[in-house]
Amino acid sequence: MRNPVFILWLCVAAALTFGTAKLIDNPYVFFAGYVVLQYIVLSTGWNILGGYTGYVNFGTAAFFAMGAYSTVVLHKTVPDLPLPVMIAVGGVISGVIGLGTGYLTLRLRGTFFGIATLAMSVVVQTLITNWSFVGGSRGAYVVRPDTTEYFGIDYIEYLFLLMLALSVIAVGVARAIEKSRLGYGFATIRDDELAAEATGVPTLKLKLLATALSGGFMGMAGAPLPYYVTYLDPASGFSLSYAVNTIAMPLIGGTSSWLGPVIGAVLLGTLQQVATVTISSALSLLIVGLMLVGFVILAPKGIIGWFAPKGPRK
Amino acid sequence: MDLPLDLLGNALVSGLLLGGFYAAVTVGVSISFGMLDIVNIAHPAFIILGSYIAYICNSTFGMDPILASILATPAFYLLGMAIYHVYDVSFERRGDSGLRGLAFFFGILFITEVSLVLTFGVDYRLVEATYIGQSLHIGPIDLPFRLLVPFLISLALMGGLHLYMSRTFIGRAIQAVAQDPLALRLMAADPSKIKRIAFGMSIATASIGGAILIIIQPVEPSIGRDYIGRIFAICVMGGLGSFGGALIAAMALGIMESFTSTFFGPSWSPAVSFGFLLLTLAFRPSGLFGRA
Fold first, then answer.
1. CB within 8 A of A95, min separation 6: which ones?
2. Is B231 domain-assigned?
3. Number of domains in chain B
């Protein structure tokens, strides 16, 4: 399928999703759906680096919260800025941070990058906690308007729609990368970085591109968060559950294709929404942890691996 | 700048003592990451588990936390062997230890943390012992036993492990396994058995590390994460797998954190280790004391 056709199908799927949610006519559907969509963007973004090049990023929470806090800052300084612009700004900031972290650590073995990202989320959290302008450890309040001037719909529907659009963009970009020269370059890094370097693949440049794109999408996923929760404090913005979910979803769905993170996000995201309501949120996180460990041991290719034709290709 | 001298001295001493403690929590990772090349990011979670075991023994039986942790080491050793066995079968033999191996340990970290939250809640827990709360005074310098005892235990632990690694057959085999598993096979030792023993030992140190952590500060399930940056920063700075290097790096970090929290406030100290880790990785990836 060619890319424009694929994008068209994605848009149709998105329109159907919104239509269905609207038909159910229950605001909770939009609240729960927003979280699932947010995880589609997060896990697709993570997979651009993690799945395609094989570098594990444990710092999802840092990129995500950076996007969210950039919105808090913009909300305080230029409150009239439309949300899509704030999302773009959040994406750019997180992308640049991703680029910087990548530049410092990606020249080394892959595990160092993983460790550095993990430590990074602790430090970014320290910085935010000590920054009183965005509320410090007390957190910040963001007033959410009831309706929007755009389509006259509820604000939560507007947020849902924005996140839906972001998912379409993220999945579209991920698939376009996968089928392009860039995607093959990423795959050579994942399979054998030394050999790739030796055959003239500009590995560092490609890795930095992947880190920036991946960080950017995570930041964009986080940017609308303050309007969604209306109250943001460092402990919830940097919650480890974002990192765990974002790693678990692609690994459970399958990391080799754009479809894996989407399947993982929809499955785990929905499961957690249900489990949080019916059982408890701590237990639903335990389920995610157990599924992650179970899948990496027993089904290394994830759910899409069950349906893939048997062959030598990874 | 005019610095009060006794404040400076106290910050220096408490940094040194803190560094000794950091060395004890790092030594397990020095074995697993430095020698075996296993990126066990779940190590801090096992340390917290050790803290809770010391807490249970202390609060129900009135047992000394350090004694309790030494008694718990065999259980931790077996746990470590079991985890390595799963890791070995699922990842190392498939040659898939990168992404999925990391995710595996990350999952274990998370499961341990959430299980502790579900069992004990998120309240801070602490232990009681006769030496907690007292201090030794040497001139203007205070030496709180709360820090001094962990420091001495930590030195003993490091010294003991160093002797074991350099004097015994298994210890030398552990040092050899990361360098050349094939040559090790020719010496009639099974690499995966040696690694299993070494990983068991690395988790066993987490029991003792956990006990001294809960002596130093109250513990709740998620504080383990603060230690991930520190532990790996120390391990990398000290040159992977070098106990002496780790000890020096731990003390350097301890002193820096102590100065940061004395002069800028304690909420900044977590940033120190990360800044150091990034700088080390960027400019001297083989560590300050490692062989280049």
1. A212, A213, A215, A216, A219
2. no
3. 1
Task: Kindly state the tokens that stand for A7.
Answer: 């994008």
Cα–Cα distance measured from residue B116 to residue B221, given in angstroms and rounded to the nearest whole number: 6
B247, part of any domain: no
> Among B118, B233, B267, whose Cβ lies nearest the Cβ of A126?
B267
**Domain boundaries, position B63:** 21-225
Non-local CB neighbours of B87 within 8 Å, separated by 6+ positions: B38, B97, B101, B104, B199
Chain B residues in contact with chain A using a Cβ-Cβ cutoff of 8 Å:
39, 41, 86, 90, 94, 96, 98-100, 102-104, 106-108, 110-111, 113-115, 117-118, 222, 225-226, 228-229, 232-233, 236, 267-268, 270-271, 273-275, 277-278, 281-282, 285
CA separation, residue A5 to residues A11, A13, A100, A224, A230 (Å): 10, 12, 35, 29, 38
Nearest to A154 by CA among A16, A31, A71: A31
Residue range of the domain that includes A157: 3-239
B49-100 per-position pLDDT tens digit: 999 999 999 888 888 888 888 999 999 999 999 999 998 888 877 766 677 8
Residue A138 belongs to a domain = yes
Predicted complex ipTM: 0.80
Q: What is the pLDDT of residues B136-191, one digit of tens each?
A: 777 777 778 888 888 898 999 999 998 998 888 888 888 888 777 777 777 777 88
Q: Which residue of B has its CA nearest to A294?
A: B104
Radius of gyration of chain A from Cα atoms?
A: 19
How far is the C-alpha of A93 from the C-alpha of B225, rounded, in Å? 25
In a domain, B146, yes or no: yes
Query: Domain for residue B150, yes or no?
Result: yes
Nearest CA in chain A to B229: A119
Pairing of strands B141-144, A231-232: unpaired
3-class SS of residue B144: strand
Contacts of A122 in chain B (CB under 8 A): 225-226, 228-229, 270, 274
User: For the segment B92-128, what is each residue's pLDDT rounded down to a tens digit?
Assistant: 777 666 778 888 898 899 899 889 988 888 888 888 7
* CB-based contact A21:A33 (threshold 8 Å): yes
Q: Tell me the shortest Cα–Cα distance from A228 to chain B, in angstroms.
A: 25
Mean pLDDT of A98-119: 78
Strands B141-144 and B135-138: antiparallel
pTM: 0.84
Alpha helix ranges (H) inside B88-180? 99-120, 145-167, 169-179
Q: Looking at the domain assignment, is residue A267 inside a domain?
A: no
Residue A236 CB partners (closer than 8 Å, separation 6+) = A139, A229
Q: Which residues of A touch B100 (CB under 8 A)?
A: 251, 296, 300
- Evaluate the CA torsion angle A226, A228, A230, A231 in order and state its sign: negative
Name residue, tokens 């309501």.
A277
Number of folded domains that form chain A: 1
Check residue B267 and report its DSSP letter.
G
